[in-house]
Design goal:
The protein is an all-alpha fold and about 120 residues long. About 70% of the residues lie in helices and about 0% in strands. The chain has a domain of about 80 residues. The chain starts with a helix and ends in an 18-residue tail after the last helix.
């Protein structure tokens, strides 16, 4: 198997992993798997020679054809992850306000200041 064909196989693995349904509990594993596949594919892309034969050109065309779908799926995955992180941050803040509701109240409220000396 040549380098370009192996990159194609890695791209297929990436698409298959992104196609699978991922719940909130499974999302960390999906992100780890996607990062591993992208790292390995990146290493091979750096060392890949330009396609010379017709077969290699076909593999390269298939890779380029799959790339926009992969990018869209990655964007969807990470947008969901960002939304979940934002929700967790908001929930953490709400919990803190529930436990200590007077945390941000100014301390000078209700205090009498005599201006005369």
């Amino acid at each position: 198997m040549n380098t370009i064909e192996y990159i194609y196989q890695l791209s297929l693995q990436l698409n298959e992993r992104l196609e699978q349904d991922h719940s909130k509990q499974d999302r960390a594993q999906v992100v780890d798997d996607v990062n591993d596949i992208l790292d390995e594919r990146g290493r091979y892309l750096e060392d890949a020679p330009s396609p010379e034969t017709d077969e290699e050109k076909q593999w390269a065309a298939h890779i380029l054809e799959m790339e926009p779908r992969s990018q869209a799926k990655l964007e969807t995955l990470f947008t969901g992850l960002k939304a979940e992180m934002k929700s967790m941050k908001k929930q953490k803040s709400s919990n803190r306000k529930y436990v200590n509701p007077y945390q941000n109240v100014a301390t000078s409220d209700g205090m009498f200041l005599d201006k005369k000396k």
